[in-house]
Amino acid sequence: MDDRAVRLGTPLELWVELVREAEQRARTPLEEPVESYLVFLLQRHQADHVLGGRILALEWLEGLDRVGGERAEALRDVGDRCLLVAGMFPRLALRRRVTPAYYAAIGQAAYAAVADATRAGYAELFDQLARAFEAMRRVLGRVGPPPDLRLVLPTPR
After folding, report:
1. Rounded mean pLDDT of 21-47?
2. How many CA atoms lie within 13 A of 113 on its CB side?
3. The total number of structural domains that make up the chain
4. Are 78 and 112 in contact, with CB atoms under 8 Å apart?
5. pTM here?
């Protein structure tokens, strides 16, 4: 699709379209569970206005100190945010005087720790995400919001 075109749809539909286009541009097809997770990650974090102010290595260490569901949730958030920085905002890493690969290493380790800390189905997904981290990073590097992005939300009944 032409980046100058107006895109219509729900936020979820627009993220799906942007991720699939990025997969094609990056020549990096993602497996369906990984692609779905990436779409929901983008939708969940689209309003994270403090991403650049976070100290993710410290959040990772704090997450490791938690137990059970709190640990998995905290480490998932660290992995997600590291993926966003490493993939979509590598200049943020460079401004902090580290490389995007630094964030990628923390994010990949965070996903692996979630896999170790959770039940079977969830663990399998996060093991897959840890292994697909670099592929997701390449895809995110090719996601770019078009200049005119319009959301069409369902009308209330």
Report:
1. 94
2. 27
3. 1
4. no
5. 0.84
